[in-house]
Amino acid sequence: MSDPDLPVPPAEPDRPEPESSAAARERLLAEVAALPGLPGVYRYFDAQGQVLYVGKARDLRKRVSSYFHKDLGGTRIGVMVSRIARLETTVVRTEAEALLLENNLIKALNPRFNILFRDDKSYPYLKLVTHRFPRVAYYRGSVDRKHRYFGPYPGAWAVKETIQLIQKVFRLRTCEDTVFANRSRPCLLYQIHRCSGPCVGFISAEDYARDVRDTERFLLGEQQQVIDELQGQMMAHSEVLEFERAAELRNRISALARVLHQQSVDESSLSGAGKDVDILAVKVAGGRACVNLAMVRGGRHLGDRAFFPAHVDDATALAAEESTALDEGEPAPAHEPLTADQRLWNAEQQVMQAFMAQHYLHSPPPPLLVLSHPVDRELLSALCVQTGVKIVAQHQPREQRRIWLDMAVKGCELALARLLSEEGSQRERTRAMVDALDLAIDDLDTFRVECFDISHTAGEATQASCVVYENHRMQNAQYRRFNIEGVTGGDDYAAMKQVLTRRYAKLAELASAEGPQPTVPGAKARLPDLVLVDGGRGQVAMAREVFGELGLDLSLIAGVEKGEGRKVGLEELVFADGRDKLSLPPDSAALMLIAQIRDEAHRFAITGMRAKRASVRTGGSRLEDIAGVGPKKRAKLLQRFGGVRGVTAASVDDLATVEGISKELAEDIYRALH
């Protein structure tokens, strides 16, 4: 009999019973049967909500049903289908829209079975700033109609090299408008013949405008016409005995001629529309792939840039099986077994098409593409529709374009060989560290190290850093900084205790409930296999205390203690579980890797501390309150203009010249500071 005075525990809500595999299969088949026969994009998810695959189809019902109504056995498709817990679809109007949505989703969702290219950086441009005396500048960001832009270029070095050439040949200014307006005498660039001195009136507006026009024509590919006109001007000056002016023009002509000779461009092989070309070469080897993009603008070869996609093995194998096992719901014809060379060619073709679809939907292509592998006509048609550019693709070019393609293929092979070599050596360094510390690690590719450091200046602006090493490389996106509060300034031990508690309290709680390797929902953090702290016995004692309170394994902790004389290479490792100190040889690969991780934690802590200190001393919080201005952009603004006062005094155009600051963001910053 129950006591009426005792509180009655609330009844537990009814929990839905887990769905059986047969019921889940029936539900999926019912969803597939209800799909429309329209173009669209489909997404497959596993039981944990992770995206497995994103695909497009002319007919959603036929395409998706082909995955579930065939016996796919132990193929890659079968493995993927066995993990599908639910699907989502989006209906679109045309295949071009499906292509656009598919690749936007691939970039956003990072599916396991899709080839994924990551290119977070925007391409740089050469900018001619509108002014009575226009200046030439490096620019990265969204373009507008107020100024002239040339590019894009494959990298910053290509833009800067072109600017140096323009300074040498056409002598256009590169100084900021604020500097230009306040000059009373010419700068050093005028003295070394890299600027014509418009700031002090050493060149007329008409002559400067002519140099600007010649610069534009040169960048647009009319190099020979510019040389011919300069030769005419040189002869005219020599006839009236203006030999110094004629000599200057001769030097310009020589510089331009050297550039044309280095580029080895055969003008007869380039039509007007063919002076802007992208050359694409792809290679697959060792489970990795490389796409090398070489850019030609205005007939000038600007250099190349290598891209390395993720998920190549799974995605190319899946695509190969799809081409034979799935055929829009129709019976698949018999196929002869593919040779190894054919499978490799097909994989490279898939990588090429994935790159073009993901790259050119956000970066307008030139009218001519020279490719090492042919691509589907449907892909080119969809790109033409979406970008508004009529694209011609050449697979087997001749003459100059063949030279460019051969160069791109060679560059692709070298870049891929370098990547495989580096990954092999990085894996060996990871193995050396695991062996040196006698760690029981089954899979080196998932081995995770987190390293902590404390930084401050005489107790001011204390910050802690946490850097992550995983998959044989530093994982910058997973770095974290912690503002340390409520401790005595300069107390590194208390700061270390606070940051470790904040970092691992939640993970320890999940570990006790779910198992030894939990993850925080929506985050990449998990309990590491090794925790390094920058310091000796004191810091390790704090870590041992925190891990003891949280119920975590003390053997995970190691302190990196500076050796005799604090010399690099003499570090010793201090363990929290009572093991003796470990001294590794100075040439040990394990010690080199540990030192690299420790130094990265120190660098990350120092930069955060300095930014925080600058914010406290200069009132940088005014910038922190502006949406879209994060720590990196804020640091670049403060560095460029010398502090918040300089940022406040800068114009919108000056703010927009800072890397990463668009015109719209510059206007927001200007309004917020005025």
Topology:
Blueprint: H1 21-33, E1 40-45, E2 51-57, H2 60-68, H3 76-82, E3 86-91, H4 95-109, E4 124-129, E5 135-140, E6 148-150, H5 156-169, H6 177-180, H7 188-191, H8 205-219, H9 223-239, H10 243-263, E7 277-285, E8 288-297, E9 300-307, H11 312-325, H12 340-359, E10 368-371, H13 377-387, E11 392-394, H14 399-436, E12 448-457, E13 460-470, E14 473-474, E15 480-483, H15 492-514, E16 530-534, H16 537-550, E17 557-561, E18 572-575, E19 582-583, H17 589-618, H18 621-624, H19 631-641, H20 644-649, H21 652-656, H22 663-673
Parallel strand pairs: 7-10, 10-11, 12-16, 16-17
Antiparallel strand pairs: 1-2, 1-3, 4-5, 4-6, 7-8, 8-9, 12-13, 13-14, 13-15, 17-18, 18-19
Describe the structure in your own words.
The protein has 674 residues and is of the alpha+beta class. It folds into five domains: 21-109, GIY-YIG endonuclease (3-Layer(aba) Sandwich), CATH 3.40.1440.10; 124-269, no CATH class; 273-326 and 341-418, Nucleotidyltransferase, domain 5; 444-612, Nucleotidyltransferase, domain 5; 619-673, DNA polymerase, domain 1 (Orthogonal Bundle), CATH 1.10.150.20. It contains 22 helices and 19 strands. Strand 10, helix 13 (377-387) and strand 11 (392-394) form a beta-alpha-beta unit. Helix 4 (95-109) crosses helix 13 (377-387). The termini are far apart. 34% of the residues are buried. The model is unreliable at 1-13, 264-273, 327-333, 518-523 and 616-620 (pLDDT under 50).
